[in-house]
C-alpha cells in the first residue's frame, strides 16, 4: 500500500484535540503525522498490510517484514501505542480506530 494512502487512512480515523491557541479543533494524529518519520510510516504500513491480509500483526511478524530486531520493533510498538496510532491486545497489534 502506498505510504500516503496509509497516512490518509490513519488521519481519517483521528480523534479531535483542541488547539488552545487558535481555538480550533485539530486531529491529534494529524499533528503527530506532521512530525512523522519514514520509520513510523514503515511500521504503520506493515501493520496495516498484515491486518488487511487477514493475518494478525504481531511484533515478530513486523520484525520479519521489516528486517529489524524484535527489540527495535518492541520499542517502536511502544511509541506507536503511546501516541495512539495502534492498539495491542496480548500479542496482536492493530491500527487504532
Structural features, described:
- With 97 residues, this protein is an alpha+beta fold.
- It is 55% helix and 16% strand.
- The chain contains five helices and four strands; from the N terminus they run H-E-E-H-H-H-H-E-E.
- The strands form two sheets. A two-stranded antiparallel ribbon has the order 1-2.
- Strand 1 and strand 2 (24-27) form a beta hairpin.
- The longest helix is centred in the middle third of the chain and has 15 residues, at 38-52.
- The two termini are 19 Å apart.
- Residues 12-22 have low confidence and may be disordered.
Write the layout of secondary structure elements.
Elements: H1 3-12, E1 16-19, E2 24-27, H2 28-34, H3 38-52, H4 59-66, H5 70-82, E3 86-89, E4 92-95
Helix pairs in contact: 3-4, 4-5
Strand order of the largest sheet: 1-2
Distance between the termini: 19 Å
Which residues form runs of ≥5 with pLDDT under 50? 12-22
Helix content: 40-55%
Query: What's the main sheet like?
Result: 2 strands, antiparallel
Overall strand count: 4
The helix/strand class is: alpha+beta
List the helices and strands in order. Answer: HEEHHHHEE
- Number of DSSP helical runs: 5
Report strand %: 15-25%
Overall mean pLDDT stands at 75
Radius of gyration: 14 Å
Overall geometry comes to: globular
Provide a quick synopsis of the model.
The protein has 97 residues and is α+β, with helices and mostly antiparallel strands.
Amino acid at each position: 500500500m502506498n505510504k500516503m494512502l496509509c497516512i490518509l487512512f490513519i488521519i481519517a480515523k483521528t480523534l479531535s484535540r483542541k488547539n488552545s491557541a487558535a481555538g480550533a479543533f485539530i486531529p491529534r494524529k494529524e499533528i503527530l503525522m506532521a512530525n512523522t518519520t519514514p520509520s513510523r510510516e514503515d511500521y504503520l504500513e506493515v501493520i496495516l498490510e498484515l491486518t488487511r491480509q487477514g493475518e494478525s500483526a504481531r511484533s515478530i511478524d513486523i520484525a520479519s517484514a521489516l528486517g529489524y530486531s524484535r527489540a527495535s520493533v518492541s520499542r517502536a510498538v511502544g511509541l506507536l501505542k503511546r501516541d495512539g496510532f495502534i492498539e495491542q491486545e496480548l500479542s496482536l497489534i492493530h491500527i487504532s480506530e
